[in-house]
Sequence to fold (125 residues):
Amino acid sequence: MSYRTASATLALALAACLPMGAQAAGSGLPMKVGGLWCGVGLLHEFRLEMAQHFNQLEARLVRKNRVRQITGRIEGSTVVTDPQRNHTLELQALDNELRVTAGTGPLALLKGQAFTRATADSCTR
Fold:
């Protein structure tokens, strides 16, 4: 599968299924994941805007002019989305990276893909 085909497949999977400073490990407190995250690699066209309220999450997954609302929870350093069209996504936060570790349905194709914390107010490079 070519890079372009894989990128298009992942973008379609996300679009179809999502209406999509750290705490010490093992502390029982949710990791701080609020803020802007920028997709890398195959997700380079996506940005994830996350608002965190302790262990609850409200987010917007944005690609071009399409916005998908996401809700979920943070369990330690793991972000678990609420079912969006009966599919969930799980991400692992580590320092300035948010890596997809699991997904159901078409979102399973995203496993291994990542977002990085924005260093500015946008994801432009």
Notes: The chain is about 10% helix and 40% strand. The CA atoms of residues 67 and 113 lie 19 Å apart. The radius of gyration is 14 Å.
